[in-house]
Every structure is written in structure tokens, then in C-alpha cells.
Amino acid sequence: MAGISSSAIETLRDQLATATVHIPGSKGHRGCLPHDNHGSGGATWKAVDEAGAAHGLATVGGTVNHTGVGGLTLGGGYGWLSGQYGLTIDNLRSATVVLADGRVMTASATEHPDLFWALRGAGYNFGVVVDFTYQAYHQGNRVYAGILGFSPDRLESIIELLNSLLANPDARSGAMCIFAQAPDGSGPMIIIICFYNGTREEGQERFAGFLALEPVLNTVDIVPYPVVNTLQNPQATYGDRKSFKGIFYEPPLDPGFMRSVFNEFMAKIQDDLDLMPSAIILECIDMRKICETPVPATALASRNLTQNGILYLRWTDPAKDLDHRAWARGVQAKWKAELDARKRDLQGGVEVPQYINYAEPGDSVVPNIYGENLGRLQTLKARYDPNNVFHKMHPIPLPP
Q: What is the pTM of this model?
């Protein structure tokens, strides 16, 4: 979706498709399964969320609802419902693809299944997807969600509580921890986005420790499900210059490391006020459902218990591009070093910790972001795009 990506690639792709969403059983879709949700390549998650909610349905979609469905889906797709239903690609039933030679194919588990496999995790490399069909689920329109804001002195206590959440996962629950400026610009703040797919009482029990920390900001309430995917929108508005650097961690988080990250980040943005809209965002998701699907079942290689995050830098002065991106790479390298150190204490670690949607083109911190799936992807690339027309997002090298 134009204005969100840190490069021009997403803008080009999404402008090639119309923006429509269709719910099965509605006019023009007789015969569709009752729990399918159809979205075109140019649709936003807002349209998908609202269309589904009107029928008491939801699917696993993005946590920023004014982004396009295509990019998130083709790279995997984490959302607030991932704990219950897995990734967006795990709920993709079919896709209509325009190939480099102009052929239009429907890819699914029964039609061109090899192409369907490749689209789910490496889809940028195989064509232009103009239509998606997702599995949808019955979803009550009320969930427990909102924002808690804390002063910086609460950081160590917050990290302990996050570690407790991660050590005691709940498929209906999720959280994000954000280091940023307070919404009113008054100074540094630690923000927790809370989500519980249940009642107020269940949500309050899940997040009782955070509520007891006396947040200086509290918007948590029972809200319609589509509202949850708007909570980050004010921070992720269109425009400006951006750099997204994927970070990742193995729980439990180290409070000392997190304090050093927080202090360095806040010093950086306070030294250059043009960076004030920037943030560090850590996701806390129950990964068990995601890991039920074996890595070879889709093209996505980063299917493990490693949690994701993102260093989100935003500024306006083009003269600062090189400096800001270099600093961001340094921060990202510290997170990778922390994970590598932790992996020495783990049984084998993880081969591919980096989530492809959080890796800018040419900025992967792992030598092979496709992991064990690379060989099969190369074979399919030679079949479906032998002239390498689609090569701007983590290109798959053609076989020799």
C-alpha cells in the first residue's frame, strides 16, 4: 500500500490491482463456501476486517489496517488471531496470479499446488496476485484490547511481565511492547498494546500485572474486533522517509539488554528531533499454532518459536538517509548478536530467525532467508519466471 513500505516496490505492486472485498453468499458469489473471504490484491485490511465483521467473521490479517493485503500475505502474515489460527498464509485457500508471461492461474491446494506452495512465503518472486481467498472464522465483535502507557522507570517490571506472558502462552491473547515518544509528545514512554479474544474479566486477569503497575495511559476496554487493528495506525501513517529493520528474540528477554536498547534508542531520537515518530516494536504472540505447520509445508522458513520485532525509523530529511540507515543496521546487529549468544544455550537454535516481511531488500541478516526451502524455490522460479522478471524483494537466484 502506497506510503507504508520503506521502498517503492509495494506501491508499484498494489497499484496494479483493484481494491475489493467480497463475502461468500453475497451477490455474485453464489456457491462459495460460507467461511471464505475474498480480497483483491489492492484491498486494505480495513476493508477485509469491516466486511467480515458485518457477517460475524474474521480472518488472520494485519495489525495495521490501512496496509494492503497482498504484501503481508505473500510474506507470511502475523496478526492478533495468529495464536488461534496460525499465519495469514496458513489461512489462504487460493490466489489468482498473473505470471510474467501473461498467463493467469488460480493456485490452491488442488490447482497448481507447487505455485501455491511458493506464494505462501516467497510470493513476491512469482507474479502479481490479483485475488486472494482466505479462510474466515466466527468472531464475536467484542474483544478486550487497548493501549497501556508507562513511564520509563517501569521498564524492568514490564520486561518481567512480558516474560511471564511468553512463558505461559494463551492462544487467545497477544501483546506488543513499544518504545516510543508519548502520544502527546511529553517524553519517552513504554507502550503495551493488549489483546484478549474474550471477555473483560478474562482480559483483566491476563493483563492484571500490567494494570497493577499504574499506567499513566489506559485505553483498554471492550471494543469491536476491527478496532484492534487500528491501534497502531496513528504511528504508521503514510509518507515520510522510513527504514524497517527486523529484530527477533528468544524469550525470556534480558532486562539489562532491554534497558540498554531503550536508553540508546531514546538518546538517538532526542538528539535528532526529525526521528521523533520512530519506534521499537516487539511482538509477543503464542507461536504454538504457527509451529504446528512444518517448515517444508510452505515457502516460509522462519516458522519457529522466535518472536519478531521491528525497528521503525521515520524522518523527513533526505540528507540523513545514509546515516539513519547505518545506525539502524547497527541496532539490528546488536539484536542478532544477542540472539546468537542465546542460541548457544539452546538446543540447536533456529536456522532462519528473520521474518521476511520485516527484512528490507538487500538487508537480510541471515545468509539464506529461505532456509531449507531455497532449492525447491529455485526449481519453481525457473519454471514460472525463467527471465527473473520479479526480483525486487529478496530475489530467488535461478539455478545454474
A: 0.90
